[in-house]
Every structure is written in C-alpha cells, then in structure tokens.
Design a protein that fits this description.
Layout lengths: L3 H32 L4 E7 L3 E3 L3 E10 L4 E3 L17 E4 L6 E3 L8 E4 L6 E5 L2 E10 L6 E11 L1 E2 L8 E12 L56 E3 L2 E3 L4 H17 L10 H10 L4 H28 L13 H18 L9 H5 L7 H15 L3 H13 L3 H24 L12 H30 L10 H23 L3 H26 L12 E2 L2 H9 L3 E7 L4 H11 L2 H7 L4 E7 L5 H10 L6 E5 L5 E5 L4 H13 L8
Parallel strand pairs: 2-12, 15-17, 16-17
Antiparallel strand pairs: 1-3, 3-9, 4-8, 4-11, 5-10, 6-9, 7-8, 10-12, 13-14, 16-18, 18-19
Helix pairs in contact: 2-9, 4-7, 4-9, 5-10, 8-9, 10-11, 11-12
C-alpha cells in the first residue's frame, strides 16, 4: 500500500539535491567570474575615416592586453630551431570588396619569453600591440562606406596559465570619396600609426599573408626577463588543469565524467529522474533484468554524447552542444517525442496508436524503450550544459577528432553512471511502492509535467520558425505550458484528497499543488510581458548590426544579452540577475542600451555576433563601452558585477573581470 510519506520524501530529496548542487555550481561560477575573463580587447581603426579614389589608407588592428598577460607573436617570428610551437597570432582580412586592395600585414617586433620551463623561448606581445594593414583604393571605386572585417586568432597567457584560444572578428568602416572631394574627417587616433612603415605599401597587390611580416625572425635577447609559463590550461569548475600531459589529460577526463554526472541534477533533467527510479523499482525483484535495462539506458546516454562529439569533430559549423536547439526542427522533434512519452506515462496508450510510437514508449521493461529513454535524457541535458561543461566542451571541440569524441563520450559515461549504480543495486529502490494509487499518481503528475515540457519545446521550435531574431519571438506557448502545470497541480490536490484521510498529508500536498499553480501563472505572465513596454523591467532592444552600430555611434554603453527561448539558464539569469532593482535602474538611465540577441531560431547575425564576442554557447553576456570594446563578458554573473562593469564601461575603464 502506498505511503505518502515515502512519496513526499522522494520529492523532498530530489529538491534538496537540486538546490544544493545549484548553489555549489553558482558559487563556483562566481569564483571563476572574479578570477578570469577576457584578457585581450581587440579593435580595428582606420588612419583616415575617408579615402579618396586612387588613394591609400592604413587599417590598424589593436590588441590591448591587460597587465601580466601576453599573446604569442605571428608565425614569421618563430625562433629558429625552437622545439616548441605556441599558439601563433594570425589575422586575416575577410572583406572582399573590389574597391579595396590589401597589402601584407605589418606586425611589430616581438620579445622573448621562456614557456613552461622549456629551453627554447617564444616571441610574445604584451601591453598595446598594433598591427598595420596597408590598403589602396581603386581609381574607379564607387563612393560610399565600406565595412571591413578582420578575423583574429590568438591565445592569451600569463606566467601560470593560458586562456582558451580566441577566434574573433573586428570591423571598422571607411568612406570612399571622389578623387576631387575635400576630406572633412580628421584622423581619429594618429598616435596609433606612428610606427607604421610606409614601404609596406609596396606589398599591395600581392596575396596578403596572415603569417608574413616586415620583421625578420627574432633572436634571443639576454636583457629580456623570462618567466616560466604553462600553455593550453583549462578552467574546469574552479580547478585549473593542463591537459597536455598524461596526468592532466586523465584529470580532464575525470572532471568531464563528474560534470556529466552532475548534469542529472540540472533543471533540464531532474524531472525525469523519478520516472526512471519508479521504472527500476517495478523490476527490482528481478536483479538480472534490472541491471540489463539500466545498462541499456546508460548505453543510450553514452550513444547520444558519442554522436554529439562525432558531429562536433566532423562538422565544421557545429561547435556547441546546445547549438542543436538553434534548429527549430530539432526542437520541435524533441517536443513531439517527449509528448509521446508523456502520454504513455499518463496511461493513455490504451488508445491504439501507430506502431512506431510504442518504440519510444517509456515502458521500462522494453529494451528499445530504455535505450530511447537514455537518449532522451541526454538530449534534455544539452540546454543546461553551459555552466557545467562549457569550458571542457569548448576545448574538446578545438582538438583532434579522436580527442573530441573521447571527451564527449566520457561526459556521457559520467551522466550514465548513476543509472548503472541504481540498476546494479536494486535494493536502493526496492522500498519504493511498485503499484497502488500513490505510484500511479506520481506517474500521472510526472507525465503531465513532461507534457508541459513537450509544449515548451514545440512552442520554442515554432517561435524559432516564426521569428527572424530582429524582434521578440512569439511567446503564446508559455500559457499552454502554464496551463498544463496548473492542471497537474489541481490533479495532485484532487487525487490526494480522494486517497487519504490524513489532514497533514492533504495539507502538505495541497500546498505543493497550489505552489505549482502559482509558479505556472507567474512564469506565464512574466515570460509573455511585452519586453519593449515602459512597464517591463528592462526595455530591451533586439539586436541587429545596424541597431548595434547606431547605439555605439550615439555614445552608449551596450549590455548585450545572448539568449534563446529554449535556454533555461538564460531565463534564470534574466530573472535573478538582470531584473534586479539595481541593474534595471541603471539600465534605464541615460547612456545605457540593453540589447537582446535572440538565438531561438539560430539568427545568423546573432550567431556571428556571439562568436565575435568570444563564445559559442549561451547563456552569455557582453558589455561594450562606447568605443566598441568589450569591457566585460561572462556566462555566469552577479548583479553587483553587472552594475560595476556598466559603470566602468561608461567612465572609460574597460578591463574585463569575467568569463
């Protein structure tokens, strides 16, 4: 016979685990935020904002590097005979416009630093580094403005660790005017060009090389101070590890497995855990079958992460796990599968459905169903990977294919491990009720919550199809989600009243049901509130390149929030950090613009901006100072950090403190 105390204990333990692990992860992220972040701010500046037809100009790529950090030189300045190759700095002009012809980049002379105790030094840049690109304008160039984009590829290091390599795009606009026109614009920063060598104009017309330089290879200078340095170091949770050696790589795999295990306790996955526990409890009397079903489910989890690693290793445009949800077709498909599983949980498969539906039924005595359930559990984890797995996944995505696949497979193995432990020790779930009204009620409630999740994913997918990213996506599906959750709350209250006479149990579960209804209503109201209205906490502007440039031209500080409707962590940060009084009050002040980059449907310009800002995963936030430099960027942050960095950016202080 069902005991409601056991049922309440199951809910309570799951909730406490979620709260504890969320708190631990949040603290770890905050510690990271205070200790690491973008150490290099890059920008592009023209010598002259206007250039006559048949004239010449110079584009400067400027790296401002914070104290005690550096980047490697270009490859042409590699030390002859060196046995160590650093992550060389490269630049490539992306823009192809027949009106402009680019010459060979002129890199400054690098100085030497001994890396990681190796006997061979490497060339590095620190402080402010300026690279010049000579440019000529065609004599028949049509007058008008040209936006030139330059790809940058570099890695920042200090005397102890290295950040992840950065692939970034910087841009600057120049105006071509008629040959007899009067130049009205004065050079904006002439001092930046004092070291430009005019003889490099002779290289115009040749093929620009990202490795070429006017400097000769550097030789050791005994007057230069050298310090040991480690390269390719990764921040994982609050631990820094170097995966270049066997010990470091083993530690990386260990932390990847731990991170995978913790994914089970994120808001994305936690709702399905009671379902699996109940399924294992139903077969706990048959130890062999329980172990086999658990192993098959674990294989499904690992198979998904293995496939994800294979995709990232072989598809050049795919770089992040939660990027899957930027494709509306994928999001809708996930929603449909969850809906089918939810119908099965609610016991509605008595109605005859097409045969293929039963293959993904969450019946736990089905081998194919267990494998599919494992895949679905892993899929549900992908929107919540950024805080836990962002660092390791990003590093793995930049490695050789076999390493990428191995790291992602280990993440899957870590996520699957708890289910193997449960299935190998059925006595852990043997005390749970296998039948009766309480067991059925729990399955029905979880089925309704899964149906709400299905509505969420289907709605987010449809919103992604209907939105081009330049305006707020449709949000009506949030009312459908809220309605289903409210029905689950009402059903919980009604059934508990019918199945128990205990005043305490009725009161406890009635309170839980009321909370579900209230939370559902609050979420629907807040998510569907018009974000551009005066009553909204923040008057968001939706990102387009033109709106961004216009805001900068007006001298504003821009808070750029990268988000998506399917991103649970994005909503969490918006409501717990950005919508706090201190942040909203500052963003409503003069000189600040809050701009949202909506990636619900994979907005191409938004994805390009995300990469330019230094990330491939969301949630992510960047604050731009009026001169277009990134003053702060992070995927996890606090209200105090946001207000402090907004104030610094407005006052002209642009030293970042996060990521």
């Amino acid at each position: 016979m069902i005991t409601h105390a056991k049922l309440a204990t199951l809910f309570g333990v799951a909730l406490l685990l979620l709260i504890a692990l969320t708190s631990i992860d949040a603290k770890a992220q905050m510690m990271d935020a205070g200790e690491s972040g973008p150490k290099v701010h890059a920008r592009a500046i023209w010598l002259d904002a206007q250039t006559r037809q048949d004239g010449q100009n110079v584009l400067a790529v400027v790296f401002d590097i914070v104290d005690n950090w550096h980047i490697a030189s270009d490859k042409a300045q590699a030390v002859p005979g060196s046995r160590f190759n650093p992550y060389f700095t490269t630049i490539t002009v992306k823009t192809e416009d027949p009106r402009l012809t680019f010459g060979t980049p002129q890199f400054p002379k690098a100085h030497l630093l001994t890396v990681g105790g190796l006997p061979d030094p490497v060339g590095v840049y620190d402080g402010q580094v300026v690279i010049y690109i000579p440019v000529s304008v065609a004599s028949d160039a049509e007058p008008g403005k040209i936006k030139v984009e330059v790809d940058l590829d570099y890695q920042a290091c200090d005397d102890m660790v290295c950040d992840f390599p950065v692939q970034q795009v910087v841009s600057a606009e120049v105006e071509v005017v008629p040959v007899d026109a009067t130049i009205t614009a004065e050079p904006s920063q002439p001092d930046l060009f004092k070291d430009f060598d005019p003889t490099t104009f002779a290289s115009i017309g040749s093929t620009p090389s990202v490795d070429a330089t006017t400097e000769t290879p550097i030789t050791p200078d005994p007057t230069v101070s050298t310090e040991p340095e480690q390269s390719d170091t990764i921040d994982f949770f609050i631990t820094e590890i170097d995966p270049s050696g066997p010990v470091g790589f083993t530690l990386l795999l260990l932390f990847a497995a731990i991170g995978g295990a913790l994914l089970n306790f994120t808001p994305c996955v936690l709702p399905v855990i009671p379902i699996k526990i109940l399924g294992l409890a139903q077969t706990a009397g048959n130890r062999k079958k329980t172990l086999l079903l658990g192993t098959i489910m674990a294989a499904g989890v690992v198979a998904f992460w293995f496939g994800l690693g294979l995709t990232i290793a072989t598809v050049s445009e795919f770089t992040a796990s939660n990027q899957l949800f930027q494709y509306p077709g994928f999001t809708i498909s996930v929603g449909v599968i969850i809906a089918v599983m939810a119908v099965g949980m609610c016991g509605l498969f008595a109605v005859r459905l097409p045969n293929f539906v039963y293959a993904i039924s969450p019946k736990h005595d089905s081998y194919l169903g267990s494998f599919g359930f494992g895949i679905m559990t892993a899929v549900l984890a992908t929107p919540c990977t950024a805080p836990l797995m962002g660092g390791a996944a990003l590093w793995a995505a930049s490695q050789e294919a076999h390493i990428t696949i191995l790291v992602f497979a280990v993440i899957g193995a870590g996520m699957a491990l708890p289910y193997l432990v449960l299935s190998a020790n059925p006595n852990l779930v043997d005390s749970l009720p296998r039948s009766g009204p309480g067991s059925e009620l729990l399955k029905q409630i979880m089925g309704l919550l899964m149906l709400a999740a299905a509505a969420f994913f289907i709605g987010a997918g449809i919103a992604g199809i209907m939105s081009d990213g330049t305006e707020a996506a449709p949000k009506g599906h949030w009312w459908v989600v809220a309605g289903i959750v409210a029905i689950a709350g009402i059903w919980l209250i009604a059934r508990v009243v019918q199945t128990t006479q205990s005043t305490v149990k009725r009161g406890g579960f009635a309170t839980l049901g009321v909370l579900m209804i209230l939370i559902a209503g609050f979420t629907a109201v807040s998510r569907t509130q018009e974000e551009t209205s005066e009553d909204a906490p923040i008057n968001w502007v939706y990102y387009t390149p033109d709106r961004f440039d216009e805001a900068l031209a007006s001298g504003n500080v821009i808070l750029l929030d990268f988000t998506a409707d399917w991103c649970a962590n994005c909503h969490l940060l918006e409501y717990t950090v950005l919508n706090t009084d201190a942040v909203t009050q500052m963003l409503r002040g003069e000189g600040y613009v809050a701009m949202k980059v909506d990636l619900t449907g994979g907005y191409p310009a938004g994805k390009a901006m995300l990469k330019e800002a230094g990330s491939v995963t969301i949630p992510y936030l960047a604050i731009y100072s009026p001169d277009g430099q990134i003053a702060f960027s992070a995927n996890w942050y606090t209200p105090g950090q946001i207000t402090d960095e907004l104030a610094k950016a407005k006052s002209g202080i642009t030293v970042a403190v996060s990521d």
